[in-house]
Design goal:
The complex is a heterodimer of chains A (192) and B (459).
Chain A lengths: L4 E11 L4 H11 L3 E10 L2 E11 L4 H14 L4 E7 L15 E9 L4 H11 L3 E10 L2 E9 L6 H15 L2 E6 H8 L7
Antiparallel strand pairs in A: 1-3, 1-4, 2-3, 5-7, 5-8, 6-7
Helix pairs in contact in A: 1-2
Chain B lengths: L3 H12 L5 E8 L9 H16 L2 H12 L3 E8 L2 H4 L5 H18 L3 E8 L6 H15 L4 E9 L3 E3 H17 L11 E5 L20 E7 L2 H15 L6 H30 L3 E5 L12 H7 L10 H19 L17 H8 L5 H8 L5 E8 L4 H18 L3 E8 L7 E3 L6 E3 L10 H6 L2 E2 L9
Parallel strand pairs in B: 1-2, 2-3, 3-4, 4-6, 7-8, 9-10
Antiparallel strand pairs in B: 1-7, 4-5, 5-13, 6-10, 11-12
Helix pairs in contact in B: 2-5, 3-9, 5-6, 6-7, 7-14, 8-9, 8-10, 9-11
Classes of the chains: A alpha+beta (192), B alpha/beta (459).
């Protein structure tokens, strides 16, 4: 008889060192966890990982936390763990970047509140941020956001609002369709 | 995952480096527009152009806004009118030119090409009537461009036609003397003219093309110049060989072509019209930073026209083709580097400073695109010398199996070294010196045909 499974999203953070991915994945497999998807990032010497794993029904969130706590106990560096249950009817597959995504770049002097200001524009106009990245050098800060404007009225409105925002804040804002970046950097043409 | 560096680089390419789509040209077949008389034919032509092209400008502007990449020129190319108007007299053809002009204004485009004929193997009555109509047609209209194909590698060069067309150019210039002979800038003589070139003044919707099509001309001399300068600044001139620079051109040409392809396909899709080709040509404009000549200077000649210029242009032309071909599903048109003197500030300055002459331009045309393009000549040059200039350029195209063309403006009342300005995209230039004027009359007087080269026999 096929056992029902349920899924947890597990997040891990610790100082970056060799072995974390192995220790975590081995621990999960020891309690019959099947890892469906993993993302990881390293920032400023700190490692963070978020993964989706499914377990037999009898394994609780507490069981997963306790198992992963064993790694922390054994480890020289502290490992922080968070486990969240995924709803039963959650659909796990979604294209990472929708067809009509845009790239917004915001450039300006590096100062407190930059990210908050730019993200306030997105919230105000119902723009969903799909991915973001920042770079800074010589006192100039640049934010790159991949955004979904499908909930906005029109691209014309977004551009107009952006221009207003740019004048109010003094930030240089550029909005470009994501396909352009794919077209000029990828081997395959982004034909839909 | 965002690849920040690539995104930043692309943003800069569009924002700072004049990346744009230089031309979106709708090709429309007018083969079914011939009626019993010229007036009804004109009516059919106007209606067909309106039917297919009424949305061209709005769609280009909408897509341009969506992608934030400018579409600089929206144009139309039609079936060579010699075919459409066959059977009418010279007046009939002039009427058709005016109908084309009206149709172009009606749909809001700035130039319409296709008042053309192909006489490479000989002239029909329709061809002759069209050629006779060209001076009046182009001086009495604003937006119409004309071209005649006088030769192909397969059939040779129709020298009788070349003889006539030298005089046609004179007539055009003299008929528009108040604008410096500008009407001659709307007329091109070709060998191996392609049927899908989106650039003016030589655009036609050739026989063998579909009912309607969208062709795109990308551009980007500025983008390529900046990319080369960046590479040289980063690595240092000593550490780079010409092959490294060729590679930089190739990669940049890929990016430029891809932008054009993306926009072009979107326009075609929105108009529900098949997408034809991307023309990879590097087409300069008089704007600062948009010059092919500047690329040549970056690649190492202090004066354009100095020894090395031909080699540089050959390398540039080839690298553009390599990068562009990989970028596109279908490449066509002329696809090479243009060297239009009036339309390129650096080239125009080189002619002014007498570092670039007609002979070096001619040499460069053997390794790059098009030919003697937008060159201002002294108004006193006789028709026979003009025909001989044409013959030289046609021979280069015929023997090398490439497209070559002549688009020269003999400026009435002005001599070498003097200055002429045509305004806007057509630019301005000093008048180039022509050596050995009046010494080719006996050659031209022979007329007849220059036979096709032996290597055209490919079966």
């Amino acid at each position: 008889m096929k056992e029902t499974q349920h899924s947890y999203v597990i997040s891990i953070m610790s100082r970056d060192r060799v072995g974390i991915v192995h220790e975590v994945s081995r621990a999960l497999s020891e309690i019959n966890g099947n890892i469906a998807d993993i993302r990881q990032s390293v920032l400023c010497g700190y490692f963070t990982m978020i993964l989706l794993a499914s377990f037999p029904e009898k394994v609780t969130a507490r069981d997963v936390e306790r198992k992963l706590a064993e790694i922390d106990a054994r480890s020289d560096t502290a490992i922080d763990v968070m486990v969240k249950q995924v709803e039963e009817d959650f659909v796990p597959f979604r294209p990472s970047i929708p067809e009509n995504a845009y790239v917004l770049t915001a450039t300006g002097p590096d100062k407190v509140g930059f990210v908050a200001t730019v993200s306030s524009f997105c919230v105000k106009h119902n723009i969903n941020i799909l991915d973001l990245s920042t770079t800074a050098h010589d006192g100039i800060y640049m934010m790159i956001l991949v955004i979904d404007i499908s909930q906005c009225t029109s691209i014309g409105d977004v551009r107009r609002n952006l221009q207003e925002f740019s004048q109010q804040t003094g930030l240089n804002m550029v909005l470009q369709h994501y396909d352009i970046f794919k077209a000029v950097n990828d081997i395959a043409l982004p034909l839909h | 995952m965002i690849r920040s560096e690539e995104i930043l680089h692309t943003v800069e390419m569009i924002q700072k480096e004049n990346l744009d789509v230089r031309a979106v040209t709708m090709g429309i077949s007018l083969l079914d527009c011939h009626r019993a008389d010229a007036a009804s034919t004109c009516q059919a032509i106007r209606e067909k152009i309106r039917k297919h092209a009424c949305q061209l400008v709005p769609v280009c502007e909408a897509i341009s806004a969506e992608y934030a990449i400018p579409v600089v020129n929206k144009r139309i190319a039609v079936t060579p009118i010699a075919l459409v108007g066959a059977g009418f007299d010279v007046d009939g053809f002039v009427e058709i030119a005016k109908a084309l002009d009206d149709a172009a204004s009606d749909v809001g485009i700035d130039i319409l090409g296709g008042f053309s004929a192909d006489v490479s193997s000989g002239m029909t009555c329709g061809d002759q009537a069209l050629i006779d109509a060209i001076p009046r047609a182009l001086t009495s209209t604003q937006k119409v461009c004309a071209s005649v194909n006088v030769g192909t590698t397969r059939s040779g060069i129709n020298m009788d036609a070349v003889v006539q067309l030298g005089q046609t150019i004179k007539d055009l210039a003299e008929g528009s003397a108040e604008s410096g002979g500008f009407a001659a800038a709307k007329f091109v003589v070709f060998t191996n003219q392609p049927g899908d070139n989106p650039f003016m003044a030589g655009a036609i919707h050739g026989v063998g093309q579909p009912e309607v099509v969208i062709n795109v001309g990308v551009s980007g001399p500025g983008v390529i110049a900046r990319a080369l300068q960046r590479r040289i600044d980063q690595a240092g001139e000593q550490k780079l060989g010409l092959h490294d620079l060729a590679d930089e051109i190739k990669q940049t040409a890929f990016r430029v072509t891809r932008s054009g392809e993306l926009i072009g396909r979107q326009v075609a899709r929105a108009l529900n019209v098949p997408f034809g080709v991307v023309d990879l040509s590097l087409a300069p404009t008089p704007n600062v930073g948009d010059s092919v000549g500047e690329i040549m200077q970056i690649l190492g000649v202090d004066a354009i026209g100095a020894p090395g210029s031909t080699a540089i242009i050959a390398m540039l032309n080839d690298a553009v083709k390599k990068g562009g071909t990989f970028a596109s599903q279908s490449v066509g048109g002329l696809s090479g580097a243009f060297i239009p003197v009036c339309e390129d500030q650096a080239l125009a300055n080189a002619v002014r400073d007498d570092t670039l002459g007609l002979e070096k331009l001619e040499a460069m045309t053997s390794v790059c695109s098009v030919g003697l393009d937008m060159v201002a000549l002294p108004g006193s040059v006789d028709a026979a010398t003009l025909s001989a200039i044409i013959a030289d350029e046609m021979a280069i195209g015929m023997i090398n199996g490439k497209t070559t063309a002549v688009r020269v403006i003999p400026v009435p009342g002005k001599e070498a070294g003097e200055f002429v300005s045509f305004g806007g995209l057509f630019g301005e230039s000093a008048i180039a010196r022509v050596r050995n004027v009046g010494k080719s009359s006996r050659f031209v007087a022979f007329g007849g045909k220059i036979p096709a080269p032996i290597h055209s026999l490919k079966n």
